[in-house]
Amino acid sequence: MGLEALYQVYNVTPFLEDHPGGDEVLLAATEKDATDDFEDVGHSDSAREMMEKYHIGEIDSSSVPAKRKYTPPQQAVNSPEDTGSAAKILQFLVPMLILGIAFAFRYFSKKEE
After folding, report:
1. pLDDT by residue (tens digit) across 36-91?
2. CA quadruple 10, 11, 14, 18: dihedral positive or negative?
3. Burial 27-58 (b: 16+ CB within 10 A, else e)
4. Between vectors from CA 101 to CA 97 and to CA 102, what angle results, nearest 5°?
């Protein structure tokens, strides 16, 4: 068996409201190795001691699945000859046709009176 690192696991949920930096800081460091986030801040000795009560276990690094890079789904590229250009023409012609029918109806209904 190789020398795999053990990650320390903490449940800081009860500390969210009391964290001096706000709960956003803790939430941004969830589900990952937050060692660098914690060390970069320069926590006091009392903060390090406080962590002991939130320690819930360890996890073997070899059991952590590799991160997968998110790949967005491919979208079809619309060509200029697509139905989009036909729809634009119809959006213009249909109202013009309705307007023309309304004027014709009004014109012919006045002549009959």
Report:
1. 888 898 889 999 999 999 999 998 877 777 777 777 778 766 555 556 777 888 88
2. positive
3. eebeeeebeeebeeeeeeeeeeeeeeeeeeee
4. 115
Extract the tokens encoding 58.
Answer: 């360890």
Cα 29 to Cα 66: distance, rounded to the nearest angstrom: 18
Rg, the chain, Cα only? 33
At 48, list the tokens.
């390090």
Instruction: Decide: 27 and 71 in contact? Cβ < 8 Å.
Output: no
**What integer pLDDT is reported at residue 113 of this predicted model?**
55
Can you tell me the distance from the alpha carbon of 45 to that of 42, in angstroms, rounded to the nearest whole number? Answer: 9
